[in-house]
Write a structure and sequence with these properties.
The chain has 427 residues and is an alpha+beta fold. The longest helix is centred in the middle third of the chain and has 32 residues, at 248-279. It starts with 45 loop residues before the first helix and ends with a strand. β6 and β7 (329-330) form a beta hairpin. It is globular, with a radius of gyration of 21 Å. It has helices spanning 46-54, 74-81, 104-107, 117-127, 133-157, 163-168, 170-179, 187-197, 204-226, 232-241, 248-279, 281-289, 294-304, 340-344, 379-396; strands at 57-61, 67-71, 87-88, 161-162, 314-318, 322-323, 329-330, 335-338, 401-402, 424-426. The protein has a domain at 100-309 and 356-426: Cytochrome P450 (Cytochrome p450, Orthogonal Bundle), CATH 1.10.630.
């Protein structure tokens, strides 16, 4: 069940990426080289569908030369992501495979998403209370205020506007700063630092930016110690200082990851959600006409536009022999990768998965925010930001449209996520 898949005939030159991919990160060449190029307009890699039909568990080679098992069926991916006992996310192990040559997010052993067992639970207990549904409801007025401020600025500047630069990037950045008790003026440099931290291209200048980001994290924690308050940063520092519940490295990784996920993932999710609704504008018009469709629409938007990308997946190591629902055997010690985009586009679970449907019934978990103990603690905040944004946009700009043809928009995955550098809109 872990065989290679013969490639289809391809006349693309060896030194050129497929035209529809439009990726700024050079994907490795060859039928078994992973990650695979995306389809048109950042749709899932077509190779996922071929493998799902021919061999749902197969060996692929990562850019750094490591070999892992790729899973592409919903049932297999759900089984692995839900089983924290037999599939570990502990990336402190020396044999861990490397996806990219310089990707701190995927390799930092002090990052909570790269931990397993008791160490993972210890940090989850610290951060979890900050993102409960009740806490998120307390932030909703703040989110609405920021959204209103940004839309005021956008409307005053006039149509057309770049929804990515003028809104989608600024909303989560401004919210993170206020959660940390910091001024809005830090937003531009914070966006620059986050982009560098998530970069997979890793040019030399990015290293210097990463150092700046790390120093900002240290300085922010120290400022909280000198002048403590009730912001999120203060609760994290208190957890570190009282009883040594977090090491220095864990505290710094926690702050960096909250900032990065809060800015990059949410900004990307907002822009891609608006893109999806405006690409076939009848979806937007249906929502404007019937707001009761919004909760289901958000679930479907998250399915087709995972906030963190999702075409690469997170790697796990089998701690014992496991037979997956597909019948494939994963042996103890083998590493597997679980791209949630493949799971969320499995036609056995989501009929006609490439079609965005406002009325799609919720019959199975998409796992866009993870599963098992690694389920994202900030899921409620992410959905609240998207919901408040879409509601406000429909109120303010019911006639919102894209200012360019959808197929003419460039896509970038020079970092861990696939996103839109810009989204020109008019109203």
């Amino acid at each position: 069940m872990t065989e290679s898949i013969a490639p289809e005939t391809d006349t693309t030159p060896d030194d050129a990426a497929p035209e529809t991919a439009r990726n700024s990160f050079p994907f490795p060449q060859g039928p078994d080289r992973f990650p695979f190029p995306d389809g048109p307009m950042a749709s899932p890699p077509p190779e996922f569908g071929r493998r799902r039909a021919q061999c749902p568990v197969s060996e692929v080679t990562l850019p750094m030369g490591d070999k892992v098992l790729l899973l592409v069926k919903h049932a297999d991916i759900h089984a692995v992501m839900s089983d924290d006992a037999r599939f570990t996310r502990d990336l402190s192990q020396p044999d861990r495979p490397r996806l990219f040559p310089n990707q701190e997010v995927l390799e930092d052993p002090t990052l909570v998403m790269n931990m397993n067992g008791d160490e993972h639970l210890r940090l989850r207990r610290i951060i979890g209370p900050a993102f409960t549904p009740r806490r998120v409801e307390g932030w909703r007025p703040e989110i609405a205020q920021i959204v209103g401020e940004l839309l005021d600025d956008m409307e005053a500047a006039g149509s057309p506007a770049d929804l990515m630069a003028d809104f989608a990037n600024k909303l989560p950045t401004r919210l993170v700063l206020r959660q940390f008790g910091l001024p809005d003026d830090d937003g531009a440099r914070l966006q620059r630092w986050v982009s560098a931290w998530l970069s997979v291209a890793a040019p030399e200048e990015m290293d210097a930016i990463r150092v700046e980001f790390s120093q900002w994290v240290v300085d922010t924690a120290e400022r909280s110690r000198r002048d403590p308050g009730t912001a999120l940063i203060d609760r994290l520092v208190d957890a570190h200082d009282e009883g040594d519940r977090m090491s220095d490295a864990e505290l710094e990784s926690m702050i960096r990851s909250i900032v990065a996920a809060g800015i990059e993932s949410i900004g990307n999710a907002i822009a891609r959600s608006v893109f999806t609704l405006l690409r076939d504008v009848e979806h937007w018009e249906a929502l404007v006409a019937d707001r009761s469709l919004l909760p289901g629409a958000i679930e479907e938007l998250m399915r087709v536009n995972p906030p963190g990308g999702g075409s690469v997946g997170l790697m796990r190591k089998a701690t014992e022999d496991v037979v997956l629902p597909s019948g494939a055997l994963v042996r103890a010690g083998q590493w597997v990768t679980t791209p949630v985009v493949a799971a969320a586009h499995d036609p056995e679970v989501f009929p006609e998965p490439e079609e965005f449907r406002l009325d799609r019934p919720k019959t199975a978990p998409t796992m866009i925010f993870g599963a098992g103990r690694h389920f994202c603690p900030a899921v409620h905040l992410a959905k609240a930001e998207v919901e408040v944004t879409l509601s406000a946009l429909m109120d303010r700009f019911p006639g919102l449209r894209m200012a360019v043809a959808p197929q003419d928009l460039p896509w970038s995955n020079s970092n861990f996520t696939v996103g839109l550098p810009g989204l020109p809109v008019t109203w």
